[in-house]
Design brief:
Layout (H helix, E strand, L loop, with lengths): L1 E6 L5 E3 L3 E6 L8 E8 L5 E13 L7 E7 L4 H26 L1
Parallel strand pairs: 1-4
Antiparallel strand pairs: 2-3, 3-6, 4-5, 5-6
Length: 103
Amino acid sequence: MRVRARAGQGSHVRLSADDLRLITRERIELGTRLHLRIEGNGDHFELETVATVVSVEDDGEGDGRLLVTAQFDPLDRVTRSRILRFAIEEERRQEVRRQAETA
């Protein structure tokens, strides 16, 4: 299955060095192989890789969406490092936004 996602502000995609979590209405089953293209929001981050779905759960909102976790195929150290930097920077940006909203 081909998946194109945008990670970052307002996104339903969360990245770590080993996996990605996304919220979707697509009916995805355990073991499904996902061919991923992930783009960051304006920071020139792009990742194309393959991952295997390891978890599918109801997202808890009651609207039929699923929380899907997919584990990346083995990635080289440089790619893992890029993902970690992107994820850390995105968390920092979100924290700054949260603080600005509550100020």
